[in-house]
Design a protein that fits this description.
729 residues, Immunoglobulin-like, Maltoporin, Chain A, 4-stranded antiparallel β-sheet, 54% strand
């Protein structure tokens, strides 16, 4: 009898320990209170695991007595922990509100299309570079935005000068003059003002970079043939924000910068200040600089005024001063003597004043007026030659956004005035040129169904450009259409196309290489015209509980007619003329992203570009363009603690202007950052395998007194190590 009693007691204890406790949960998105299906719910330390149903609910059974931790996970959201002690005192259903993780899955609002839609619902294909990646890339190059664009497929940052290290942005293999660069929607980097442009845009105040590839002239006018890159500044919040960065590199560069912003009830501000110093750097000991001696300074204050809930006024002024001296390193450091005389100086001043007025006429309707005035002055000096020019540019845009139930309509007009004046030049070579543009545009976005969205637009531009040689008036009618179709939660596709144009300019990558020397002014040259489009298919899915896979395959095509090409006459002077032979670029981009538990992120991108200019003799492939390019990046990040990344880039063979082919090459980079509260310390090794052009052939030819330089097709400065500290308050 005693044994039976003991067995009964043991059974009761075991039954108590493994009681059949139940729990009901409803999982929702905290942002909009929508239910989350397929979220993972598990009891830590047990084999109890299940997914939420379509209504966001989960019913857990057989939960042991005692303290238990319930984990709720969903890719794109922060992990949620619920600590409960079973059995519960009362039987109730728990509501779990999950917060979006700070990664690529949260809604990205696009401003370049002017509809303020999320990227998932925008028919126009827009690529974004988010604040997290901007912050990472600014560790590598705090002085300018070149590294931010370096990783993107289909985009090349092309160095154009061996001594000044100037560079341009090429999209889909086309020259830099076909890419429209914007800062907060203002076109302040065109024609002559494009000189040194990406070297004078600091990344410290950026919130987002938006890239539209393919013809985009409906909203942006001339120059948006290959695409648009819009650098979006940060807007102040009620909580004060102060960022400070100090960086030092082994190549002699020092960067000191700060960005501060805050918003009050009626007034807000932001302030960017950055100064950069670069010592003359000669890595291959050939006595010529790979990096010029540089001093530059940028200050950009903005005042935000909020008279009421409907009105916002933004007043800004960006000022940049830059002095760069390259060439013979003995001349740079010590001055000219009998054996060392070659130098190249670039002195520039850029000032852009902006005014932005926004008024909400209804909850989702917006009247916007934008105006800017840009002044850019640049002087170039080499032995026995000096070039000095000033570019004045004014831009005014008036637009109205009307939002209906399933539609939005934007219509507006703008006026652009661009004038270049060269000083101290003989009349026959004086390169003065003026362009005046008045345009009107309209764009309609229609949510035909929940899964099908259509966007169409039309611009008409009246353009007048002239100098002392000739005067030309042209009218451009520029339609554009794009569509988005969502097959299901995993598959979607975009397709779009349109027309574009580019007014004549003397300032290209080719003319930059010889500092515009012996370049004749434009004469009887007309605008270039283009048509093209892009099409893509996108796939994303969850793999198990902790993996996210996304893939995008994009195809592109652009054809430019009436191309302007650089020619040379019997006197050795250079000039531009139109050709009937077309330029066309076609290819595809493949992008894949794999995320594990939001800690490990693997990116892979491949670009194939077949771009040809029919006017080129013998070999028609566009010069300094690799057919194949591969981008790889692996990143590990623990939020607000530590991050590290490894990058690899493969660049295929390229044709030079002498019809020779370059070698293909790999380059690799590594970065790490550790956060200590409000202070973070970072290190970076860029191109640590020391890929550089002088390892294949000397870039400088001839004597020290009269050198010539090869086309630049890869790194000239070799490996770069840098490190610094950042302070975020």
């Amino acid at each position: 009898m005693r044994k039976i009693f003991l067995l009964l007691c043991a059974f009761v204890c075991m039954a108590s320990a493994y009681a059949q406790n139940s729990l009901r949960l409803t999982v929702k998105d905290k942002k909009d209170n929508t239910v989350l299906a397929d979220a993972t719910v598990l009891v830590k330390g047990t084999n109890i695991i299940l997914k939420t149903a379509t209504d966001g609910t989960a019913n857990l059974n057989s939960i042991p007595n005692g303290p238990q931790t319930i984990l709720i996970r969903n890719v794109g959201f922060e992990e949620y922990k619920l600590s409960l002690n079973f059995p519960l005192t009362q039987n109730k259903s728990f509501e779990v509100l999950m917060e979006s993780a700070e990664d690529e899955l949260e809604d990205v609002i696009i401003s370049s299309t002017r509809t303020s839609r999320s990227i998932q619902n925008t028919p126009t294909r827009v690529e974004t570079i988010e604040l997290e990646e901007i912050d990472e890339k600014s560790n590598m190059r705090p002085a300018n935005v070149s590294m931010i664009l370096h990783e993107s497929t289909g985009i090349a940052v092309q160095q154009t000068s061996a001594t000044s290290a100037n560079a341009s942005i090429r999209i889909q293999g086309l020259d830099g003059r076909y890419t429209q660069l914007l800062k907060d929607g203002y076109a302040s980097f065109g024609n002559f003002a494009s000189g040194l442009s990406i070297l004078e845009i600091p990344p410290l105040d950026l919130a987002q970079v938006e890239i539209i590839k393919g013809p985009s002239s409906t909203l942006f006018g001339a120059g948006a043939i290959a695409g648009v890159v819009n650098f979006i500044s940060r807007s102040p919040r009620e909580k004060a924000d102060l960022n400070f960065i100090l960086n030092q590199s082994n190549v002699g560069q020092t960067n000191v910068g700060a960005f501060s912003m805050q918003r009050g009830a009626k007034i807000g501000y932001s302030l960017l200040a950055l100064t950069n110093f670069q010592k003359a750097y000669d890595v291959d000991q050939d006595d010529f600089t790979e990096l010029p001696k540089t001093k530059d300074f940028t200050i950009h204050p903005k005042l935000f005024i909020y008279p009421n809930d409907k009105t916002t006024i933004i007043i800004g002024n960006a000022f940049t001063k830059s002095d760069r001296t390259g060439g013979d390193i003995f001349v740079v450091n010590n001055g000219v003597d009998a054996n060392h005389q070659y130098f190249e100086t670039n002195n520039s001043t850029r000032n852009t004043s902006t005014l932005d007025f926004s008024y909400k006429t209804a909850e989702k309707d917006l009247l916007k007026v934008k105006t800017s005035f840009n002044y850019f002055k640049r002087g170039i000096s080499i032995p026995a030659y000096v070039f000095n020019g000033v570019n004045y540019n004014s831009y005014t845009d008036l637009s109205y956004l009307k939002t209906l139930k399933n539609q939005s309509l934007i219509f507006g007009a703008n006026a652009v005035y661009d004038k270049f004046s060269e000083s101290n030049q003989q009349p026959l070579l004086k390169k003065d040129f003026t362009t005046r543009t008045a345009g009107a545009y309209a764009q309609h976005t229609w949510d035909v169904t929940e899964n099908f969205k259509l966007e169409s637009g039309l611009r008409i531009d009246f353009v007048n450009y002239y100098n002392t040689n000739y005067k030309q008036n042209e009218v451009f009618v520029l339609p554009r259409v794009s569509a988005l179709y969502k097959f299901d939660d995993h598959w979607s596709s975009r397709i779009g196309g349109g027309l574009g144009y580019k007014t004549p300019t003397l300032f290209t990558e080719q003319t930059e290489t010889f500092q515009y020397q012996n370049l004749l002014p434009l004469a009887n040259v007309k605008a270039e015209r283009s048509y093209g489009g892009t099409a893509d298919i996108n796939y994303k899915t969850n793999i198990g509980d902790d993996w996210l896979l996304s893939f995008n395959q994009m195809f592109f095509f652009t054809r430019i007619n009436n191309s302007t090409i650089l020619l040379q006459n019997n006197n050795g002077d250079f000039y531009f003329g139109n050709t009937k032979d077309a330029v066309r670029s076609l290819g595809f981009e493949s992008n894949a992203k794999l995320i594990f538990h939001e800690y490990f992120k693997l990116f892979a991108g491949y670009t194939f570009t077949d771009a040809k200019a029919n006017y080129l003799p013998v070999i028609q492939t566009i010069r300094l363009l690799p057919k194949s390019k591969l981008n790889l990046a692996l990143l590990y990040e623990k939020e607000s603690n530590f991050k590290m990344g490894l990058e690899g880039y493969f660049t295929d063979k390229q044709y030079l202007y002498n019809n020779q082919q370059t070698n293909p090459f790999w380059e690799f980079g590594f970065m790490a950052e550790k956060v200590f509260g409000k202070i973070s310390v970072f290190i970076n090794a860029e191109n640590f395998t020391d890929t550089r052009q002088s390892r294949y052939k000397s870039v400088v030819n001839g004597s020290h007194l009269n050198p010539t330089f090869d086309d630049i097709w890869t790194h000239t400065e070799g490996r770069t190590f840098n490190g610094g500290i950042k302070l975020k308050l």
